[in-house]
Design goal:
heterodimer; A: 251 residues; alpha/beta; eight-stranded parallel β-barrel; 10 helices; 12 strands; 28% strand; globular; B: 194 residues; Rossmann fold; four-stranded mixed beta sheet; 6 helices
Chain lengths: 251, 194
């Protein structure tokens, strides 16, 4: 049986992992490759590396990082952060990345999703969506959640699928950093609308939140960062817990 | 020497790295002589069937692969290309294994592609020796090989499909051993020991 995936996310700045609460107040949490290997050992199903460095050298740095990770890890990983062209993507694929996640660049240029899917296959393209509930609407935001757009979550997720996205990574800005649980209602709605896997992000604070996101939220995978980095939840214990509660999980 | 066939397919680097971790310095090559002379050949990849077949034909690699007599491991799209025919792009494949490749038709809201860890069962043959019972391996695919005479491992998604195939010296997996943690490493080790 296909299992639900637990995905630690490692935010990378200048080669080090960081994670902020609500995307600010960054804290240093270690070396990405070492941390990735540790998570893999503990049972992480995949890893996401999100580069938040903003320099001209980023493409080269990111490719070097992808290479380092691919050389040392035997589980799949996604790289994201500032990827905006087919050329950016090609170098990451050649370096050993299994997937790329695109976010702001896809909103600005939706054709990018098609270009990447056609060139590398849908399985390589994760469209990451940051959205915030404003009034009754989930509004898609750019630049790590700072800039609102005229796009709405459900429409944009569906459009991304139609254009060739292989997976959707949805981060709820309202839930991110709160540790109060995932945006299960919105997640279940996206999952019902789309026929590609949905990765839930934002709000994980307890093991029960993961149970809820897989059952109520109907997510295919759940992503979290600080609770893993700061060892509030250990992945092996989390997976045992989920298995006991009859969630299909790889142990 | 282990040759990894270079035919512009994705995820080749991961296969090379996985072999490197096992202490094997494999060669990525499209050179006919090097492929024929290799002790073992890996036919990896992520990609689209018709584009992959076109590339193989244009470079004469289709005929080379068919004639190989050493152990060959075909991974993911590689497994599909060994078959007769794929629904993906209505493609005539290499025809080494007389089975067919079809697109998953979700029956109970299953997502397509299948992405993630699923278990293999009813495994047969040396490729799958020394593994835990019904182990989990990593899949990424929308098309699958039907269950048939050459099926060596099963996985359930929508319905049972061929997670592994074998005919003579040709071994294949639908999943990615290079991305399947310790289980995948053991499968690669088993292949290298053939």
């Amino acid at each position: 049986m296909l299992t639900k995936r637990i995905i630690p996310c490692l935010d990378i700045k200048d080669g080090r992992t960081v994670k902020g609460v609500n995307f600010v107040n960054l804290k240093d949490a270690g070396d990405p490759v070492e941390l990735g290997a540790l998570y893999s050992e503990q049972g992480a199903d995949e890893l996401v590396f999100l580069d938040i460095t903003a320099t001209h050298e980023r493409r080269k740095t990111l490719a070097a990082l992808a290479r380092e990770i691919a050389a040392h890890l035997n589980i799949p990983f996604t790289i994201g952060g500032g990827i905006s062209t087919v050329a950016d993507t090609e170098i990451l694929l050649e370096s050993g990345a299994d997937k790329v996640s695109i976010n702001s660049a896809a909103v600005r240029n939706p054709q990018l999703i098609e270009d990447l899917a056609k060139r590398f296959g849908s399985q390589f393209v994760v469209v990451a969506i940051d959205a915030k509930m404003i009034g009754d609407n989930w509004v898609v935001h750019l630049n790590g959640g700072r800039v609102p757009t005229d796009k709405y979550l459900f429409d944009w997720a569906k459009e991304s699928e139609n254009r060739g996205a292989g997976e959707i990574l949805f981060t709820s800005m309202n839930h991110d950093g709160t540790k109060m649980g995932f945006a299960n209602e919105a997640l279940a709605q996206i999952s019902g609308l789309l026929n590609i896997p949905i990765i839930a992000s934002g709000g994980a604070g307890s093991m029960e939140h993961f149970y809820d996101v897989f059952t109520k939220g109907k997510a295919d995978a759940a992503l979290a960062a600080s609770i893993f980095h700061f060892k509030e939840i250990e992945i092996s214990a989390l997976k045992q817990y989920l298995k006991q509660r009859q969630v299909p999980i790889r142990i | 020497m282990v040759a990894v066939i270079n035919y512009n397919a994705g995820n080749v680097r991961s296969v090379l790295f996985a072999l490197e971790r096992l202490g094997v310095n494999a060669k990525l090559t499209a050179n006919h002589n090097e492929i024929v002379a290799a002790d073992k050949v890996i036919f990896p990849g992520v990609g689209e069937a018709s584009a992959a077949m076109t590339h193989l034909r244009e470079h004469g690699l289709d005929e080379i692969i068919k004639r190989l007599s050493q152990p060959v491991l075909a991974i993911c799209i590689g497994q599909q290309l060994l078959c007769d025919y794929s629904e993906e792009g209505n493609t005539t494949c290499l025809g080494i294994i007389p089975q067919r490749v079809k697109l998953f038709q979700p029956a109970n809201g299953e997502k397509i592609p299948q992405i993630g860890w699923n278990n293999i069962y009813s495994v047969e043959g040396e490729l799958f020796k020394s593994l835990p019972e019904d182990p989990y391996v990593y899949f990424v695919h929308s098309y699958y090989v039907e269950v048939g005479a050459y099926t060596t491992a099963l996985t359930d998604y929508v319905h049972p499909f061929s997670a592994g195939l074998r005919k003579d010296n040709f071994y294949a997996t639908q999943f990615h051993p290079e991305k399947s943690g310790k289980v995948g490493e053991q499968i690669l080790r088993n292949f290298l020991a053939l």
